[in-house]
Predict the 3D structure of the following.
Amino acid sequence: MSKKSYPYSPATALAQSLGIIDQETQAVVPPIHVATTYLRGKDNSYPTGNVYSRADNPTYKPVEALLTKLEEGHEALLFGSGMAAATAVFQGLRPGDHVLAPKVMYWALRNWLLNFATDWGLNIEFIDMTATETVAKHLKAGETKLVWLETPGNPLWCISDIAAIAKFAHAAGAQVAVDSTCATPLLTQPLKLGADIVMHSATKYLNGHSDVIAGALIGARDDTYWQRIRAVRAQNGAVPSPHDAAQLLRGMRTMHLRVREACQTAQFIAEQLDQHPAIAQVLYPGLTSFAGHTIAKQQMAGGFGGMLSVRLTGGATAAIHVAAHTKLWKRATSLGGVESLIEHRASIEGEGTPCPEDLLRMSCGIEDPHELLEDFLQALP
Ligand SMILES: *Cc1c(COP(=O)(O)O)cnc(C)c1O
């Protein structure tokens, strides 16, 4: 969707889901299409382009149009999960292709890359993505096909310089894909910074209510790599149910309000806990003392995200104690919902994780920030 065809801000685009009105009924909310198959014309063609719902479904269109607008991309594709979206990007590559990925990244994807992608012939190197020089050094001109970024990166919230890395990657002939789940399309627009593909776990901030699993990719252009990725979705059937797509659109209508609250609360909690004697370190890109703060300030607008981590001076025992004694912070994995979550992250990531044992990952919801702080403080040992 071009700027001309929809000239309004992200807030207006979200609240009105681009102002799309169902032509047949004048409904202000688009219909859910449950059909799995579509009638051919007498000339044997498919007059609407709809064929079979393993590949695509008209219920996705308003969500994809909204994501295309928010990321200012060429096209968006909905997937059945964030992992389905992310893995499609790697499945679009070919055996022998060289890939650079961050040492600190979403654990389930790192696991998949190690356990599946390498077996299928991808040559993946995990490197420090916070240092652009390191990335430049590891790029192999003509061989590196993809640089995968995640910024802020789970669960240490490491920041990568998308614009600087994209310049080096493109010079070497590689594309750049960014897992922008935690930044959301409201805080960072990776395509405008030079990335080629953006990935979101729509399960998180996009839907925002912990009741839909979905994912999305937004591409900058319709090149052969993007066409392969689109074919992966269609041929693998890596699609969400139409009901989930509709519920996702409902959730997205309030994303700007939820993300704004979550950012303000995360900044407040990070600042309040920063000098606390029970806390060894607060990891949050919005703290001026944070290693990636300067770059975060350049590539994030309107906030530094709703995610932070804290390391406890009392080690793993203290961390697990806190998670066991909070009442408002719910002890659960995931992030980006309206309810705040707390997690002893090393427990879920398992062996080989770069996550320290004394770390708690916190996803700020939209509750009263003072009550959230009080609840955390009363849980300290
Ligand atoms: C949750 C998450 C994913 C995976 O998304 P699912 O929808 O759970 O498959 C990928 N990246 C990040 C940063 C996430 O938080």
Observations:
- The chain has a mean pLDDT of 97.
- The chain has two domains: 10-252, 255-379.
- The longest helix spans residues 255-274.
- Residues 338 and 365 are 4 Å apart (CA to CA).
